[in-house]
Amino acid sequence: MNLNVSEEMLRQIVLGVVQGMAAKQEATVSDFTKVTDPSGIILIKSDTVKCEPFQGEPGVRLRDVVTLQEAPRMGCGIMELDHANFEWTLTYDEYDVVFDGVLEIETQGRVVVGRPGDIIYIPKGSHIHFRSPQTARYAYFVYPANWQEL
What are the phi and psi torsion angles at 28 (to 5°)? Predict the structure, then answer.
């Protein structure tokens, strides 16, 4: 059988297959699933993220899910609190999106309470207490991503 496939046609076919594979590349990064499109768009399967203990704080676990190389301007991660209360001063702007449980942000004697589906914005310079009377799991988004270097 003679298919008469030109070199250019073969090149286009191979290029299409390779680009399609790259677009659907799904990688398990340590302990969570991240899908990176060639455009730079990143999909993180948040339910696969396994958090790690945070700075010896009892009941506090987190995991950054993007690197500065992947997202140089905005940081993102998942945090879990289990009957926790810890103090923090933000040197960056932060949004928190609550997935499960109750997240409390205490500042200046007042408490903002977030429940599943709620979004909380915390401005740079805020001195707060992250709290959870039971458990909470939420995504955090920070700007700038390299806040630790500033």
Answer: -95, 115
pLDDT, one tens digit per residue, over 22-36 is 444 445 555 799 999
Model confidence over 105-122: pLDDT tens digits? 999 999 999 999 999 999
The Cα 105–Cα 46 span in angstroms is 22
The Cα 37–Cα 24 span in angstroms is 7
In angstroms, the CA 104 to CA 85 distance is 9
**Tokens coding 111:** 């408490």
DSSP E strand stretches across the chain: 26-29, 32-36, 42-45, 52-53, 60-64, 75-82, 85-89, 93-101, 103-107, 110-114, 119-122, 127-131, 135-143
The whole-angstrom separation of Cα 94 and Cα 142 is: 4
